[in-house]
Amino acid sequence: MGSGDPHMKIIHGEAGYILEDVPHFSDYIPNLLTYPNLLRSNPAYSVVKQYFVDADDTVPQKVVVHKSGPRGIHFRRAGPRQKVYFKSDDVLACIVTCGGLCPGLNTVIREIVCGLSYMYGVNKVIGIYGGYRGFYSDNTITLTPKVVNDIHKRGGTILGTSRGGHDTAKIVDSIHDRGINQVYIIGGDGTLRGASVIYEEVRRRCLKVAIAGIPKTIDNDIPVIDRSFGFDSAVEEAQRAINAAHVEAEGAENGIGVVKLMGRYSGFIAMYATLASRDVDCCLIPESPFYLEGKGGLLEFIEKTLEENGHMVIVTAEGAGQDLVTESMQVMNQKDASGNKLLQDVGLWLSHRIKDHFGRKKNTVINLKYIDPTYMIRAIPSNASDNVYCTLLAQSAVHGAMAGYTGFTAGLVNGRHTYIPFNRITESHNQVVITDRMWARLLSSTNQPSFLNPKDDNVAKKTELPIQLLDGQKDEHQSENHIATKS
Amino acid sequence: MGSGDPHMKIIHGEAGYILEDVPHFSDYIPNLLTYPNLLRSNPAYSVVKQYFVDADDTVPQKVVVHKSGPRGIHFRRAGPRQKVYFKSDDVLACIVTCGGLCPGLNTVIREIVCGLSYMYGVNKVIGIYGGYRGFYSDNTITLTPKVVNDIHKRGGTILGTSRGGHDTAKIVDSIHDRGINQVYIIGGDGTLRGASVIYEEVRRRCLKVAIAGIPKTIDNDIPVIDRSFGFDSAVEEAQRAINAAHVEAEGAENGIGVVKLMGRYSGFIAMYATLASRDVDCCLIPESPFYLEGKGGLLEFIEKTLEENGHMVIVTAEGAGQDLVTESMQVMNQKDASGNKLLQDVGLWLSHRIKDHFGRKKNTVINLKYIDPTYMIRAIPSNASDNVYCTLLAQSAVHGAMAGYTGFTAGLVNGRHTYIPFNRITESHNQVVITDRMWARLLSSTNQPSFLNPKDDNVAKKTELPIQLLDGQKDEHQSENHIATKS
Amino acid sequence: MGSGDPHMKIIHGEAGYILEDVPHFSDYIPNLLTYPNLLRSNPAYSVVKQYFVDADDTVPQKVVVHKSGPRGIHFRRAGPRQKVYFKSDDVLACIVTCGGLCPGLNTVIREIVCGLSYMYGVNKVIGIYGGYRGFYSDNTITLTPKVVNDIHKRGGTILGTSRGGHDTAKIVDSIHDRGINQVYIIGGDGTLRGASVIYEEVRRRCLKVAIAGIPKTIDNDIPVIDRSFGFDSAVEEAQRAINAAHVEAEGAENGIGVVKLMGRYSGFIAMYATLASRDVDCCLIPESPFYLEGKGGLLEFIEKTLEENGHMVIVTAEGAGQDLVTESMQVMNQKDASGNKLLQDVGLWLSHRIKDHFGRKKNTVINLKYIDPTYMIRAIPSNASDNVYCTLLAQSAVHGAMAGYTGFTAGLVNGRHTYIPFNRITESHNQVVITDRMWARLLSSTNQPSFLNPKDDNVAKKTELPIQLLDGQKDEHQSENHIATKS
Amino acid sequence: MGSGDPHMKIIHGEAGYILEDVPHFSDYIPNLLTYPNLLRSNPAYSVVKQYFVDADDTVPQKVVVHKSGPRGIHFRRAGPRQKVYFKSDDVLACIVTCGGLCPGLNTVIREIVCGLSYMYGVNKVIGIYGGYRGFYSDNTITLTPKVVNDIHKRGGTILGTSRGGHDTAKIVDSIHDRGINQVYIIGGDGTLRGASVIYEEVRRRCLKVAIAGIPKTIDNDIPVIDRSFGFDSAVEEAQRAINAAHVEAEGAENGIGVVKLMGRYSGFIAMYATLASRDVDCCLIPESPFYLEGKGGLLEFIEKTLEENGHMVIVTAEGAGQDLVTESMQVMNQKDASGNKLLQDVGLWLSHRIKDHFGRKKNTVINLKYIDPTYMIRAIPSNASDNVYCTLLAQSAVHGAMAGYTGFTAGLVNGRHTYIPFNRITESHNQVVITDRMWARLLSSTNQPSFLNPKDDNVAKKTELPIQLLDGQKDEHQSENHIATKS
Predict the structure, then answer these.
(1) Superkingdom of this entry's organism (chains A, B, C, D) (predicted)?
(2) What's the whole-number mean pLDDT along residues D345-359?
(3) DSSP states along B192-227
(4) Pairwise CB contact (< 8 Å): A470 & B443
């Protein structure tokens, strides 16, 4: 946690209770007017007593507790507030989507538009095209409930997306010039770092503009939150590729199916897809190093599995074994640089190495089929579960912005919707690792080696680090989080 | 809570911490031998420090807290223990499935078998055919990892199922005579009440037989736990029916699509399917009474919607409006008893009433299509998310039984796997109602009436009860639970 | 064939060759101008020599031949002609969809619009809303390639549909008043009878208006043509219901799954779905009468199957056993008229009779589940195969209308696209029966009784008729047609 | 046609009628006993008069006819015969699958086993593992209706498959030694060439062993027959990849989606998938050469499409542009041989060239996503339509073998099931080209260039050949065939 952050709001309660709060207009703008929440007169809401969220409702980051442990960090609960800081007619909201595709983007867009309109009577919403750089363009799209009515049934994002293109000053100028006072930004950690800087600049200029983020990553490697939207749909769709790999492997003598799934820094999709499928013999993830040669190595395991079952399915996250891939490439580089780009693909590299290994053995002919379903997974529409999740995230963001909160992302923490300060989402990216417990479950289900019996000391040292990470993780119980909401 | 239950284990900790514990062999059998957990030597588990669950790890039922509220009820955390109370070779486990079909039954069966075998070296597992009454039959099936290898890809249950057939003495005799010492029972609240009685009888006879339950209901109306397995798959599949109703409604003049979904006492599937689909104009659930005629009634809302949009989709849980259906039937009964059975179907009844209403109006011809996808939903294989969930439930149950716990169900509480005493699952069935907050979200998304503006005093009184239930619910924050893990 | 039809064009060639031709503007309008076909200058078409269809290309109705049999009836081959009878700018086309939903309606609409625009430069196309009665309304929709771009991915019809509403004079007035000169009518045999009358009136008034039909029936019971569009998609989707019935039946003791599929006068969908699924034990179709009681009856077969397999799946076309259902109803009528409407549903009736039968037997408890997936099947989008088929049908119709043909439907005959006079499609509806050979294949695959061993003479007489029909069918070899193109 | 083939049976009928017949035991074995067909006593078959196929029923290869053209080539109609040449108990059948995976393999296996058992009382069927080389292994599997009961719901082949491994003498020895007298061989043209040689050797040895083939190729490039099994399923599944490419392309600035589909020598899958999808802007197939640079080239078309629409989807058959790819590789070879293997993939090559082209242009940044769904398509289970088709093919083969035919493949010709001599299936492989008419339909639907405006004379010469092939094709009308059964 950036303890030097001047805007961090830490509130200490009793018995170790710590609230990591999000910014609010009232932090930097004096004498703001407030308005009664329109929802109050919505007949639908009359069915519920205490509809509005209490000011001091919070959600703890840790749930599993020892008898008398401290209460730890809490986040502010999301939801509608008694008072709002905007008049409906005064709101001009915009939505922008950044980064790679992910199932559910269109649902989030749809529900921000519908939430603003149906819940708060806000009818001025525009879409920024093609990510951050769309702020520099005059070309926007007016978003109404009718325009977005069916978009949740389509994959992708109707707003288009791009990476980068972040010029804070130009973006804030554009926001100001257009009279936008609510900015909904959907994107990954890079995008949200950008959103954080935009928020800082907006605050510096003392603008009453709410900057609300909705974290997006198909990899599910965002800290704090239970899972990222689209993850469930991605795991579901990944089953197809695994199933195809299994059929291909079974159909051939010494058939090996290799499937590469998303996950640059974390193996959530690979791990959950493996657990859901039951047809996978080995799952490789970035957090757990492995080695190919020698006793206890992957190649030995492949030989053993082929001997016993006659076929095999390997799932690898795209970020798995990057150290090995890089090493290979450096060796190759000395001879020839032309093939590198392709070989950086761990799936291709692994396929190549396996073929190579068995090619040197005279009496074993293998049939290896490599499947990379990445784009086919990213492009699907979100499933029912993600549709509901996206709806609630969007509504949370809308409630938060209307209530004057800013510089926050909506996020599910221990099954509750919360507002989380940007820095908690963006700062600790590299520390997100697969939960030890879940990984143990997977290992026992695949019976694959732990790869902790390294061929030489050199490897042994490398493997120490991840173990420590896993331990650290254990202490925080954060890992279990992901099990929870996924299962 | 049945305070008179002599076996209830309540442990009071600091600051209001209450542990509702589950029974253990050591509660009624003295001088038991224990054995080191085999998992200790499983190389896979060496990747994780502190793999075994601490004796005092607990999970709170409430997560959202006020600054200094009490800590409330906790449950024992599920997972592998340092010591087990069975030698692998001594275990003879059996599995039985009871009640209606639900996606995921086969996955649970598969993972109990594979979990026992791969994690604990237990290779004697038998399947009881056709529910409880299968205990009286000699006909069982030997379950091995090979036998169950592919069953998770099929709907239904390979063991068959039935309702009722519960004769405690005969069942415990059968268990004893066969030498069974672990009984895994998968079923709904009736089934688990049976399991509870079996456990009591086993305990009375001082048998070292673990009775472990896995709660099953496609309706998701089990108290305490976050969601029941198969629910996610059911909501996903329900989208098909809603989509068909929408297409049919759109294709015709004044087209009305009516879809009946499961949910006798609770409308979870109807509610989530509605939220996920976005094509539904009105959702009716058992927890929220409605009325047809008069101002603010359903028929008025239908008229209004047809006038505005030209078509309409209504989703009703099977238990919605049962008071109205019953009332109708009584009136009809006086004339003619033959048609009752069919009219008890709220979907048919509603369709009939709507047609009747517009039939009396000269100038509006409606086209109503009624879809009942119940069996098509129940029979699907579980989706990826439910597959992972079923796996973890099964593994939890296996860990618990091996560790000497009995008289418990495995269950997810606030995203953590726990052991819950039977009585908590079975006793409070009728109090399970839809969460107020989630229902409010739905109401604002469909814009349907709250039906709280009753046509006469008589109705007004009826509606009071549910409101109170909703309030009570709110106090416990239990409702939010369901949002959490679903979204 | 209505030999009295004054407009029937029969051309006799050599060796028994008979061409049943379709009308053409030149039949009743003198001195028409023609124009070179725009496609001539389409660079795409330069790849093909002899792109335009020869004036004397014909397609025989019979394909299987004996060594020296006659050549029989032929139809005019569909496709682009050298000359067209409209200038692109002069064309104002309209499209109307009538009758029940069927997968592919939107694809046909899309491809008429795109075909007219991309192939012939015709850009004035309007959609008539809600079937024939839409002609009386001022409310139409302008159809452009952009408007229809994505509609083939949705089920239903964007134009809406209805039954009846046919007032020939008013419709032709409307066509004339709006200046429409190409009318594309998509519908079943009732609709095409209407189209035929419209064509007669248009001809009587000497209007240069092309009336082109595209036959639609999900039942596939249109004479002459190989299969109707949407049929393939329907059979595919029907598998879901059968699969669910199978899972439900397998999961219960003496489980019986009953599935009702579309098919009022013919059992194509039931038959093909049964052949595709392999989980069906008995298939009932309108063309093949059956009886319940006594030796060789359905109930005996059910008893036998339950005894051998423990479960059973029955598929029934909606029109199967209507004589029995009607008979039952008449008996019931004497007592009570209230339930009739529901009991006309053969699926409900059959379920009732089976339950009744086993209810009278003390020692057999059955679990019967009835599934009616009709609306869920009708509402799906068309699959890939139907998409291609709809595209070619639409393009055929467009080529035909541009070439001056009228009073025709597009249709696939022996795998070739042809133009067929209306009367051939509409007149012989009731003679369409399931092919003997295909039905024999099904019988041998399900091992169900032939129901030709009737319980009494009365039934025997009833069964004679269908056998004769089958024989007659055999002589024409028409039946095989359907096998062909489906398989 | 190999006129020198001593076993070719050509029978000349009246009016130019030519029957290309298949071999029969009676051609080379004297004094064979025959038996009445068991099906005669099958009650199911009593519903049909003339159930058995007439000896002189034939099916013409050409359907579209001019008024007085010759009748051309015919094939023998498939189906059950009055007499069979095997006693049920004497039959020992074997099944072998060779070559790549294709949807429907398991259905064909299932239906051969069930057809032999249910129709002919044959209960000795074995499966040869892993293609032709399985004949040398002792390891076989006994196939019964129970064993194969559910296999049609799984992709792949339960028998495994391989390429090559053909040693005629050893295979025939193995057949003879095991006492096998019916051999069912499922495979592509290489496999069937092998089957043809096996038949010749069997005949040389005067063995009463029926050699029956079922042609398999997912590419659909088998001459004579309407379509190959699995093709329909493959086109359906290909839609997913195209849809993903479309979503990815739409979501990015200048997004280009490239999808490679199967089709080494013919572009059927690419063409039909393009026609079914409607989201494709350019389809490249082996039969139609293209060029990249210059006026009318592919790169120019891409530039134009991006400018107009902002995104683009390209589908390429794997065999498209192989001359260009080879040329590129030769150039590269001179510098560096390492990357060749990967670049032979036309999809990768094309993606590389497109990126390269736009990389040289300063002001256009493109986002290209390449999808290769090959293995995901091959591994799916067959859809309903293919299930029915596979069933009929298998039953045809069984009827033929029982009736004493040998050296034949089952095949659908103009929608009728026939027996075709091996040489017709295998000899003319390279002449199979996409139908001109269908290709023209595609060109007009995508509006892509015809690539007939070559950049230089050199290319012009190359393109001449295919045009001629297309013309030749046209004369035979064979092309239309494929349209027929697909649409």
Answers:
(1) Eukaryota
(2) 93
(3) HHHHHHHHHHHHHTT---EEEEEE--TT---SSSS-
(4) no
